[in-house]
Structure prediction request, 119 residues.
Amino acid sequence: MPVTCEVRYRLDPKKRAEFEAYAEVWMQLIERYGGTHHGYFMPREKPDGAGLSFPGAGADGAGNIAIALFTFPDEETYLGYRANVAADPDSIAANARFGADPPFKSYERLFLRPLPRSK
Prediction:
């Protein structure tokens, strides 16, 4: 079964350029070790007139959230990525560069599976 991961970052608005540099490193590392990176999705203003479909149940989200989405073909490949990236020079350099002063305030990681479509 594929391993799809969504990471939600609460951005520090003063560190947007640093976050984009951080994102570039991780997109390359994930793909280097067998994953498919679907990209980082950065916050933007909503389109004028974009109302909510269910106003009583929904709300617009925070404007400082970025989302990364990536998939590995199976758990073995994902776990191999985790092991390999720990020793990868680019990962070590990124952690040294961003670890003490991350370009985000916090993050949340979610593991997801696709909902099969009915026929």
The longest helix spans residues 16-32. The chain has a mean pLDDT of 93. Strands lie at 3-11, 36-41, 65-72, 104-112.
